[in-house]
Amino acid sequence: MDKESIIFLFLLVLIFFTLQPSLASQMLVSHSRRRLLGEWRMLQKSIGISAVHMQLLRNNKVVIFDTMDFGRSNLSLPGGCCHYDPSDMVSHEDCYSHSVLYNIGSNTFRALMLQIDPWSSSGAVLPDGTLVQIGGYNDGDRVICTLASCTGENYDWVELTHTLIQRRWYSTNHILPDV
Length: 179
Hints:
The chain is an alpha+beta fold.
């Protein structure tokens, strides 16, 4: 099919869907599937951070984290812990969490401690369930962070600082098969 025919066909379909929305929706959704069951429900009013990255783990928990360079979050770190970074663009001392572990089964969450900025990092889950985040922004661009898939509640991020020779920002991770 040549380029002009494709453009003509696209415009014809666009006009059809614009002029006949009810007929188009009937064509796209069969009669038996018109009444989809389900609902949206608010599970938490707030978890204290903005979700920039999320990863569902196999232990029915979700790791959620955001950037650190936009200032404090709405979730304090427990026990008076703080993140100190003299090169941070907003605050040299940050006593707020930028990572959360959400438990789907109990609908609860808790703060996780990050010392580096994981914004723009990439992640993968290892066969044992460990989440590995590589790179990030500012002080996190040469860091590897891991979060083990534990069943208990007393685990947190492990940061391997200055382990990458080159900066990693928006990198891609692939799990390679054993051969």
